[in-house]
Amino acid sequence: MGERLDAFHRFRTEMNEKILAHDNLVVRRFFNLDGQAYKPGALSSKVKEMLGLVASLVLRCDDCVTYHMIQCHNEGVTRDEFFEIFGVALIVGGSITIPHVRRAVAVLEELEAEAAASRAKDDA
């Protein structure tokens, strides 16, 4: 995994463990609710992650953008679909979202490079 994504996963995992170690009912319920919101229902998990990515871009939360980029990639979102997502976010959020779209594209390139390396390894 790329350096940026490794650091993101390590930090997220470590902090989530620390947060959840403190026995706070509201925090635990919110974390559980967040996980439940992306399970398939009338909308697929893929569509829900795409919606989450647009919202995260518009809200300008880079951690959330990275998380949803990874989840969307895992759900099979294509490069063309990502760029349509970016377009919707730009229309809704305006030019202030451009730096966040830039960082999202950097994450996408890292995810694509990782996937290509994995395929090459499997083919060897």
TrEMBL record:
Q: Which InterPro entries match?
A: AhpD-like (IPR029032), AhpD_core (IPR004675), CMD-like (IPR003779)
Carboxymuconolactone decarboxylase-like domain location: 26-105
Q: Which protein are we looking at?
A: Alkylhydroperoxidase like protein, AhpD family
Q: Which SUPFAM superfamilies match?
A: AhpD-like (SSF69118)
Upper lineage is: Bacteria, Bacillati, Bacillota, Clostridia, Eubacteriales
Entry superkingdom:
Bacteria
Picking any one GO molecular function of the record gives: peroxiredoxin activity
Return any one Pfam family short name: CMD
